[in-house]
Design brief:
This protein is α/β, with parallel strands linked by helices and 233 residues long. It folds into 2 domains: 115 residues, 3-Layer(aba) Sandwich (Cobalt-precorrin-4 Transmethylase, domain 1); 107 residues, Tetrapyrrole methylase, C-terminal domain (Methyltransferase, Cobalt-precorrin-4 Transmethylase, Domain 2, 2-Layer Sandwich). The chain is 32% helix and 20% strand. It has a 5-stranded parallel beta sheet, covered by helices on one side. Strands 6-7-10-8-9 form a 5-stranded mixed beta sheet, with helices on both faces. Helix 3 packs across helix 4. 31% of the residues are buried.
Length: 233
């Protein structure tokens, strides 16, 4: 029996109410229409996205498994067993590219162990788009994910990375954006370090600014409740 495949399906990184069909590559349209089995971070938003892609899609006869940070190994194994039997699955995170600071990695890991073909599809990644537009070092960079919540640990991390060459990329929970911004302004070297703030990439409030830390103190950026990427070099 031929095994199914795992398709990593990117979803919009801007607000779903600002949906822009032209930002979705044709291969994503085609692949979604050929699937009826999905492992997704949020079932409701995944169904809404698919219906926007194709209003005629037979959503009621498609199967959705929840794939988030709480998904246990038995659920992952259940999905893998279906793929081994010939059923292909599409993985979708809440926004952006599955497996990149989002669910999907564990299922891909299990897929490789079972010799399942894994196909990443083209789509938006706020991390890469922010780095592209930042003007900072794109040859040597590190994505650190979420910076520590504890203030002491956070400051320690920032100071440690000040001495390591390359671009350092972070994300933060939107309601803590301003706090992280102020910590970076306070603890990065004001004249020698550059800081990029990339807000609401691809959305109507998109703003990407790179300045020295000293210059950034005078820049007005509304990042409250907005998805934001922080990069310094």
């Amino acid at each position: 029996m031929k095994k199914g495949e795992i398709f990593l399906i990117p979803t919009p990184i801007h607000d779903k109410d600002e949906f822009k069909k032209e930002l979705i590559p044709p291969i994503v349209f085609k692949q979604i229409n050929e699937l009826n089995f999905f492992a997704v971070e949020n079932i409701r938003t995944a169904r809404r996205f698919i219906k926007k892609i194709n209003p005629e899609f037979d959503i009621d006869n498609s199967h959705f498994e929840l794939l988030d940070k709480r998904t246990n190994n038995s659920t992952l194994q259940k999905i893998i067993s279906q793929i081994v039997k010939g059923k292909s699955v599409g993985i979708m995170s809440e926004a952006g590219c599955p497996g990149i600071a989002d669910p999907g990695q564990k299922l891909c890991e299990m897929g490789h162990k079972n010799n399942i073909r894994i196909k990443p599809l083209i789509g938006p990644s706020s991390i890469i788009l922010a780095l592209m537009a930042s003007g900072l070092n794109g040859q040597k960079f590190t994505f650190h994910g979420y910076i520590p919540i504890d203030q002491g640990e956070r400051i320690k991390k920032i100071k440690e990375l000040c001495n390591i060459a390359g671009s350092h990329i972070f994300i933060e929970t939107p309601y803590r954006n301003e706090k992280l911004f102020q910590e970076l302004i306070k603890h990065l070297r004001p004249n020698s370090k550059k800081l990029c703030i990339a807000v609401d990439i691809c959305g109507i409030n998109e703003k990407i600014v790179t300045k020295t830390v000293k210059e950034m103190k005078d820049v007005q950026i509304n990042m409250k409740k907005q998805p934001t990427i922080f990069i310094f070099e």
